[in-house]
């Protein structure tokens, strides 16, 4: 039986009186590559920020391996956060640190390991993402694709069960984007990590997603879910067809 590693139940997100997402529920299965997608303003990033604990739901719950991240405090909250890793869209690397120091940071903050062990682990994580030889570089010396890889290495520093990626392919050329997709697939297979990915890049969606949910700005809910290629070929919902086939209303009607 598939294990549910994340449970989102009757979740509502709002900024004041402005409801962004209204009463959605879904599960993420352990080991899958789960993609959150949708048009601009549909709440993809808002949902992600709630799932990693930056915001608290207006209603409902988000359970990470059975623990409600919105209701956890103190050490309980720290233990949940140690089991998730986040790679942000622009990398969010510290420019005053080397690549190696950026990856070492979570280990220094959340473990009692000695300096030599932290150094070794950080180098291993950089090796996993193909950045051996870039340890002493500063973020400003890295290409866009290398920044994404370094951010991914830092997100993996504490060996989390779940990795959250925010628009991993944004700003990358097609070849670099495809290489990053391949890396995500390799890591998911070799490490058994669960990926939750926010993206609107169709090629990446088809390359990596085991399952998707599509958010809709107008209904403020989930308008479609399942295998992206199946949705592309079989959905009878116009907005879903337009998204997956990159079509305008006129093209869809022709």
Describe the protein's topology.
Blueprint: E1 4-15, E2 18-29, E3 33-38, H1 44-51, E4 59-64, E5 67-68, H2 74-82, E6 84-87, H3 99-110, H4 115-128, H5 144-155, E7 162-166, H6 174-191, E8 194-198, H7 202-208, E9 211-216, E10 221-226, H8 228-234, H9 238-245, H10 249-253
Question: What does this protein look like?
Answer:
The protein is α/β, with parallel strands linked by helices and about 250 residues long. The chain has a domain of about 70 residues. It has 10 helices and 10 strands. A 6-stranded mixed beta sheet has the order 6-7-8-3-9-10, sandwiched between helices.
Describe this structure in a few short sentences.
The chain is built from 10 helices and 10 strands. With 254 residues, it is α/β, with parallel strands linked by helices.
Poorly predicted regions are: none
Main beta-sheet strand count, sense and barrel state = 6 strands, mixed
Helicity, as a percent range: 25-40%
- Mean pLDDT over the residues: 90
- In terms of structural class, how would the helical and strand content be classed? alpha/beta
Backbone shape: globular
Strand order of the largest sheet: 6-7-8-3-9-10
- Please state roughly what percent of the residues sit in beta strands, choosing from under 5%, 5-15%, 15-25%, 25-35%, 35-45% or over 45%: 25-35%
Give short descriptive properties of this protein.
alpha/beta, four-stranded antiparallel beta sheet, 10 strands
């Amino acid at each position: 039986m598939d294990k549910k590693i994340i449970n989102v139940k009757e979740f509502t997100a709002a900024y004041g009186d402005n409801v962004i997402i209204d009463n959605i529920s879904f599960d993420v299965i352990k080991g899958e590559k789960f993609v959150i997608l949708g048009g601009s303003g549909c709440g993809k990033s808002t949902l992600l920020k709630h799932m990693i604990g930056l915001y608290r739901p207006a209603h409902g719950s988000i359970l990470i391996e059975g623990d409600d991240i919105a209701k956890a405090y103190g050490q309980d909250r720290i233990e949940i956060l140690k089991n998730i890793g986040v790679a942000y869209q622009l990398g969010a690397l510290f420019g005053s640190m080397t690549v190696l120091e950026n990856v070492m940071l979570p280990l220094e903050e959340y473990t009692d390991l000695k300096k030599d062990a932290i150094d070794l682990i950080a180098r291993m994580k950089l090796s996993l993402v193909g950045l051996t030889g870039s340890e002493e570089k500063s973020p400003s010396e890295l290409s866009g694709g290398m920044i994404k890889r370094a951010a991914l290495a830092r997100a993996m520093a504490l060996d989390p069960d779940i990795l959250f990626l925010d628009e991993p392919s944004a700003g990358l050329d097609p070849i670099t984007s495809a290489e990053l997709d391949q890396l995500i697939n390799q890591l998911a297979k070799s490490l058994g990590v669960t990926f939750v990915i926010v993206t609107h890049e169709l090629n990446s969606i088809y390359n990596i997603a085991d399952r998707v949910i599509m958010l809709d700005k107008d209904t403020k809910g989930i308008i479609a879910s399942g295998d992206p290629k199946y949705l592309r070929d079989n959905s009878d919902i116009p907005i879903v067809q337009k998204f997956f086939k990159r079509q305008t209303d006129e093209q869809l009607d022709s």
